[in-house]
């Protein structure tokens, strides 16, 4: 679905006379392959290059060096931009910047309308997209009346209505309360498992990566670790070198294992851990 080879990206900082005063190498030798239907999480501390990478995936920016292909299309070729943008939807951090219409359903209809989708089909897509993110009963509401998590789900429905093969979410939960975060992550997980949409989820909440197939850890513009969530959580010392910690559930599981309790390595969520503890004492 997506392939990156030797990708580097440099931001030029310019002064008022437009002279380049410094060059920031935000990506530095990034390589990866993402298969259709995969769920990838990307973690890394602030400034590690996550957002810069995300913007490459729907040709918002193109590599300074190297190549990114989306479904075989080179993002650097301007003739591919429109196709790539229809294939890869983006969801950003701040829901207020992504919702433009005064009514939820009109907001979701905006994308397909712009693409020239016939009217009846637009309403079909709007219905289905809002149902998928569990926001159908709010279709006639003003987005102002929604919580942050509900707004993000409407933003996701807006992307879904364009029938993308892939959705890239750049810290979609950063501004949400815990309930809103859970609902958004549930919706994203469902899109992957039920609709088969390829997902790239950027987050700095470790507990949000547990549903993904693979995790990329970024540091200084590079992918420095890669593995399943369980594999990544087993490498706590390496993670801490990159300024990242493991979730509470994983720490508790470690402690219990050291006390000879039988907790399998694939126990990642609080529910799984509770179930496991109950089984050992039953
Ligand atoms: P992250 O999303 O992981 O926080 P970013 O991709 O936003 O990281 O940033 C990577 C690096 O690029 C940082 O050092 C950041 O300061 C720099 N950077 C990001 N955007 C710009 C910009 N528009 N101009 C100059 N430097 C930038
Ligand atoms: Mg960012």
Summarize the structure.
This protein is of the alpha/beta class and 282 residues long. The protein is 37% helix and 24% strand. Strands 6-7-8-3-9-10 form a 6-stranded mixed β-sheet, sandwiched between helices. The protein has a 4-stranded antiparallel β-sheet with strand order 2-1-4-5, covered by helices on one side.
Structural notes for this entry:
With 282 residues, the protein is of the alpha/beta class. The protein has ten helices and ten strands. The strands form two sheets. The chain has a six-stranded mixed beta sheet, sandwiched between helices. A four-stranded antiparallel beta sheet has the order 2-1-4-5, covered by helices on one side. Helix 3 packs across helix 4, helix 3 packs parallel to helix 5 and helix 4 crosses helix 5. The termini are far apart. The model has no long low-confidence stretch (mean pLDDT 93). The protein binds adenosine-5'-diphosphate (ADP) and magnesium ion (MG). The site of magnesium ion has 2 residues, from helix 1. The site of adenosine-5'-diphosphate (ADP) has 12 residues, from strand 1, strand 2 and helix 1.
Strand order of the largest sheet: 6-7-8-3-9-10
Number of strands: 10
Q: Percent helix among the residues?
A: 25-40%
Shape: globular
Spell out the key features of this protein.
282 residues, alpha/beta, four-stranded antiparallel sheet, 10 strands, 37% helix, 24% strand, binds adenosine-5'-diphosphate, binds magnesium ion
Walk me through the topology:
Layout: E1 2-14, E2 20-34, E3 39-43, H1 50-56, E4 65-70, E5 73-74, H2 81-87, E6 88-91, H3 104-114, H4 119-132, H5 148-160, E7 166-170, H6 178-195, E8 198-202, E9 214-219, E10 222-227, H7 229-233, H8 236-241, H9 248-258, H10 270-281
Parallel strand pairs: 3-8, 3-9, 6-7, 7-8
Antiparallel strand pairs: 1-2, 1-4, 4-5, 9-10
Helix pairs in contact: 3-4, 3-5, 4-5, 5-6
Bound molecules: adenosine-5'-diphosphate and magnesium ion.
Magnesium ion binds at residues 50-51.
């Amino acid at each position: 679905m997506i392939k990156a080879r030797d990708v580097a990206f440099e931001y030029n900082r310019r002064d008022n006379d437009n002279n380049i005063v410094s060059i920031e190498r935000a990506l530095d030798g990034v390589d990866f392959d993402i298969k259709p239907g995969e769920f990838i999480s990307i973690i890394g501390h602030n400034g590690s290059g996550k957002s810069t990478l995300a913007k490459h995936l729907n040709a918002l920016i193109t590599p300074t060096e190297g190549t990114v292909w989306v479904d075989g299309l080179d993002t650097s070729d301007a003739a591919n931009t429109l196709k790539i943008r229809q294939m890869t939807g983006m969801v950003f951090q701040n829901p207020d910047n992504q919702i433009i219409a005064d009514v939820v359903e009109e907001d979701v209809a905006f994308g397909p309308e712009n693409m020239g989708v016939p009217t009846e089909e637009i309403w079909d897509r709007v219905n289905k997209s809002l149902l998928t993110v569990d926001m159908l009963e709010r279709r006639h509401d003003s987005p102002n009346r929604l919580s942050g998590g509900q707004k993000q789900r409407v933003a996701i429905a807006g992307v879904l209505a364009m029938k993308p093969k892939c959705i890239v979410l750049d810290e979609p939960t950063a501004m949400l309360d815990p309930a809103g975060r859970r609902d958004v992550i549930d919706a994203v997980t469902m899109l992957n498992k039920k609709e088969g949409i390829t997902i790239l989820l950027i987050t700095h909440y470790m507990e949000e990566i547990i549903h993904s197939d693979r995790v990329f850890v970024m540091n200084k513009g590079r992918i420095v670790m890669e593995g399943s969530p369980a594999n990544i959580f087993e490498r706590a010392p390496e993670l801490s070198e990159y300024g990242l910690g493991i979730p509470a559930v994983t720490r508790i599981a470690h402690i219990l294992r050291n006390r000879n309790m039988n907790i399998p390595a694939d126990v990642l969520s609080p529910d799984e851990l509770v179930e496991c503890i109950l089984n050992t004492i039953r």
